[in-house]
Amino acid sequence: MTTVCLLGNPNTGKTSLFNALTGSYETVGNWSGVTVEKKLGTLRKNAGKLIDLPGIYDLSPISRDETVVTRFLLEESFDAILNIVDASQIERNLQLTIQLLEYGAPVVMGLNMVDVAAGRGVRINIPAIARKLRIPVLPVVARTGKGADDVLRAITEDQVAPARGLVLPYGTDVEEAIAVFSKWIAFVPAKQKRWFSVQFLSGNEAIQPYLMQHGILDEALAIREALAKKLSVPLSQYFHTVREAFIEDLCLQSVEYTKQHNMPLSDKLDRIFTHPWLGIPLFLCVMYLIFQVTFTWIGVPLSDMLDGFFWRGIIGLGHYRANLYRCLTIYY
Prior knowledge:
The mean pLDDT is 85. The protein is an alpha/beta fold. Helix content is 53%, strand content 14%. The chain has three domains: 2-155, 3-Layer(aba) Sandwich (Rossmann fold), CATH 3.40.50.300; 172-257, Helix Hairpins (Orthogonal Bundle); 265-297, no CATH class. It is elongated, with a radius of gyration of 29 Å. α3 (90-103) crosses α11, α7 (172-182) packs across α8 and α7 (172-182) runs antiparallel to α10 (217-230). The protein contains 14 helices and nine strands. The strands form two sheets. Strands 2-3-4-1-5-6-8 form a seven-stranded mixed beta sheet, with helices on both faces.
């Protein structure tokens, strides 16, 4: 039975696509050693299993929970990767895509939110991206399920793209370090040796336990430190820059940003409130307004009104009890 893992950045419609392909989650506890929920589902028509991995921007984990993805790629058995990409934020999303392609497993890209991208004036030449990356790229609108049938066929009935690792030109110093490091990792399958080397050299800490387990962590760290001394920038930044250059070249050939487009109000506000110079002053102004509204303009009058209401009620209740007592006394 085909087993496919679903990977993508957070907030790219991953859950919606999972539901469109399976119908619902089948929760099977947590991933080993972390609190992240392990979610699996059966593909429609009983075509296979779909494993929903945590949303991440990069394979290098920021938190312990994010090590789940690297550990899954190293330890689990699967047939293909379904990478969901936000078409309206394609350049940022492709950082993860590049690392998945370097891994060497078959990859199918689900290009989600194509309708949102079009509304923002982003025109994507899907065949050009597919040719450059050598993988199937399928447009999909996950929230409505449009295009989900094509994705399902691509990962099950149709031939998935042949497994080939993407090779980026990282430069002479890095290539020499990869060659030296690869000789130490005989326990890694040949197809993933380059990916494993790149991940370690770029600073993916989830790799270190495997090196420690095989007693070669000190030698590996020495190779990485020697490479760091040869480069003028931190290793993580260096690898990110090389990938970024590849992505920019890809987008120049396949993505067009039109001058006239309907920018959502949220994006317009983001540009203002996240401005490097205006952001903090605006934040302080907003907090001041909230304070004034809460404690001065509304808080004080509302408090006085409530105090007056309750005091009048208490005094009125006192008069009522006094009159009642007087009437009862006269009666008896």
